[in-house]
Design a protein that fits this description.
Blueprint (H helix, E strand, L loop, with lengths): L11 H6 L9 H14 L5 H11 L2 H6 L1 H5 L6 H22 L20 E4 L4 E4 L9 H11 L5 H4 L2 H17 L1 H12 L3 H21 L6 E4 L5 E4 L6 E5 L7 H12 L3 E5 L6 H13 L6 E3 L4 H10 L5 E5 L2 H13 L4 E5 L5 E4 L5 H13 L11 E5 L3 H13 L19 H16 L3 E4 L14 E4 L6 H4 L6 E7 L2 H9 L3 E2 L1 E5 L3 H10 L4 E4 L14 E2 L2 E2 L4
Parallel strand pairs: 5-6, 5-8, 6-7, 8-9, 10-11, 10-16, 11-14, 13-14, 16-17
Antiparallel strand pairs: 1-2, 3-4, 9-19, 12-13, 15-18
Pfam family, one: Aldedh
Keywords: Oxidoreductase
GO molecular function: oxidoreductase activity, acting on the aldehyde or oxo group of donors, NAD or NADP as acceptor
Length: 557
């Protein structure tokens, strides 16, 4: 091996100390962390990075790449070695699937699902590749049977004290907190959101689980006065086997939102993560076992929606389904539930949330709130403030400042600490966003900035701002789920209220004003599950969340 020269070459061991511990079971994620560590350490020379990488690899791993070690290329040694490691890791996982083996224990009962699906984006390059086989046959029957067995009268779970349930759930939360860095990296790797946002997601999940751990032994019934010498009482009982279907935009956070209350109440679970982002849930399965949940209480089955999700929704032994995702899929789930055993259904679906900006606001503050309400999480948020209504007196100034703020966004590698916007989730979502942007241009909305893909490769979309948007345009009616801000003009609050309600959705809404009377009137007359006043995305585990109309039914948290 050629000795490195230049920066930090005198002490490769010291550099290696700053690299993450080698994760043999996820080489791709480890390489990504090494890339970030080199950037943070301002190490740029190929020789130095190559030597540091080699120093971290054990003999077993080096034997797989001996040709590169013995005769390294003249240039790009680090890239050559890292690409080879990732390729061999992917090939190895393909073979495991062919042999019907799993990376991890996905189901805590005696049986395991028969296949694992994983789609992985090459985030900096953006090219979608299948890491595991596309065709899967997830054995939902076995997962449901394990959950049903764990819920039987006399089982360890059913006879466990509520306080003990809370203790295990609290330990589960603590394990997630312990592994915050790993989970945040995993979240960013498969979802594309900036790493700092992933850290926030993980910590919110920890808080949610700890909150419900404290609720486990505080679920009370009521005593009811009855006629004569008798009395009545009610018991709050667990529903049974719960099917939980998680979307891809908040892989871990929404696991906690569903698992926390279900477990605190004493239910058992079959959880299906989104096919785009299964790895977070798979890793969480290990923590579930480490926390001490009895076998069969929490089962995780990765798979496609129409196969795994469809089978779970229609299963006769599933007592409740909780779904977060698109309105179109939510309708199918409700139909399947009705055709099977009329199981209970909670749906949290799409949105086209209005944010009304009155002329009495602090302009800079209002522009920032509206910006964050839309661009947070690459715009991939069900309750994003995607219809920004601005009063005509401040409209032009608001548009100008919104354009300026959008153009300052840093789009790129989500592991770079300077990045504020990563790639969209996949090619389907990427193409949908660009198609809706084109419709906005054709229908007469004024493009202030953006309006195209960012760069030549990857699922990156330029931060886009449209003004002069009309209510009958596609971008005004359809959920874009991307970094596209639409700014409308209004005259009176009464008009803004009417237009806010002129949608099939009703998930969230917001108003920015210094007049408390306007705020109260708006919150009373707008049909939305959550209404924010002088803020947006202000969430709390103590507050229920859900929508009206086509945004869903029921409440979570």
């Amino acid at each position: 091996m050629t000795s490195p020269t230049g920066e930090d070459s005198s002490n490769i061991g010291r550099i290696a100390l700053h690299l993450p511990v080698f994760w043999r079971n996820n080489v791709a994620l480890w390489i990504r962390q090494c890339d970030s560590a080199f950037v943070l350490s301002q190490i740029t020379q190929d020789e130095t990075k190559y030597a540091a990488l080699v120093s971290m690899l054990g003999p077993k791993t080096l034997s797989h790449v001996s040709d590169i070690i013995i005769s390294p290329p003249a240039a790009n040694k680090y890239i050559t070695l890292s690409d080879r490691l990732i390729r061999e890791f992917v090939d190895s996982e393909h073979q495991k699937i062919k042999n019907k083996k799993l990376l991890t224990e996905l189901q805590l009962g005696d049986d395991k699902p028969s296949h694992l699906l994983r789609k992985m984006k090459e985030l900096s390059g953006g090219q979608l590749q299948d890491e595991f086989l596309k065709k899967i046959m997830v054995d939902v029957d076995k997962a449901v049977a394990a959950a049903k067995e764990a819920f039987k009268n006399g089982s360890v779970w059913r006879t466990m004290d509520a306080s003990e349930r809370g203790r295990i759930l609290n330990k589960f939360a603590s394990l997630i907190e312990r592994d915050v860095e790993y989970l945040a990296n995993l979240n960013t790797l498969e979802n594309g959101k900036p790493f700092k946002d992933s850290v926030g997601d993980v910590m919110f999940a920890v808080g949610t689980l700890k909150y419900y751990a404290g609720c486990a032994d505080k679920i009370h019934g009521k005593t009811i006065p009855a006629d004569g010498n008798s009395f009545s009482y009610t018991r709050v009982e667990p529903v049974g086997v719960c099917g939980l279907i998680i979307p891809w935009n908040f892989p871990l956070l929404l696991i906690s939102n569903k698992v926390g209350p279900a477990i605190a109440a004493g239910n058992t679970i079959v959880l299906k993560p989104a096919e785009q982002t299964p790895l977070t849930a798979i890793y969480v399965a290990n923590l579930v076992k480490e926390a001490g949940f009895p076998p069969g209480v929490i089962n995780i089955i990765p798979g496609y929606g129409p196969t795994a999700g469809g089978a779970l929704t229609a299963h006769l032994d599933v007592d409740k389904v909780s779904f977060t995702g698109s309105t179109e899929v939510g309708k199918l789930i409700q139909q399947a539930a009705g055709k099977s055993n009329t199981k209970r259904v909670t749906l949290e679906m799409g949105g086209k949330s209005p944010l009304v900006v009155c002329s009495d606001v602090d302009l800079d503050e209002a522009v920032q709130i509206a910006h964050d309400a839309l661009f947070f999480n690459q715009g991939e948020c069900c309750c994003a403030g995607s219809r920004t209504f601005v009063q005509e007196e401040i409209y032009d100034a608001f548009v100008a400042k919104s354009k300026e703020l959008a153009m300052k966004r840093v789009v790129g590698d989500p592991f770079d600490e300077k990045t504020t916007q990563g790639p969209q989730i996949d090619d389907e979502q990427f193409d949908k966003i660009l198609s809706l942007i084109e419709s906005g241009k054709k229908e007469g909305a004024k493009l202030q900035c953006g309006g195209a893909r960012h760069g030549s490769k990857g699922y990156f979309v330029q931060p886009t701002v449209f003004s002069d948007v009309k209510d009958n345009m596609r971008i005004a009616k359809e959920e874009i789920f991307g970094p596209v801000q639409q700014i409308f003009k209004f005259k009176t609050l009464e008009e803004a209220i009417e237009r806010s309600n002129a949608t099939e959705y009703g998930l969230a809404a917001g108003i920015l004003t210094k007049d408390i009377n306007k705020a109260i009137l708006y919150s009373q007359q707008v049909r939305a599950g959550t209404i924010w006043v002088n803020c947006f995305f202000a969430g709390s585990v103590q507050v229920p969340f859900g929508g009206y109309k086509m945004s869903g039914q029921g409440r979570e948290l």
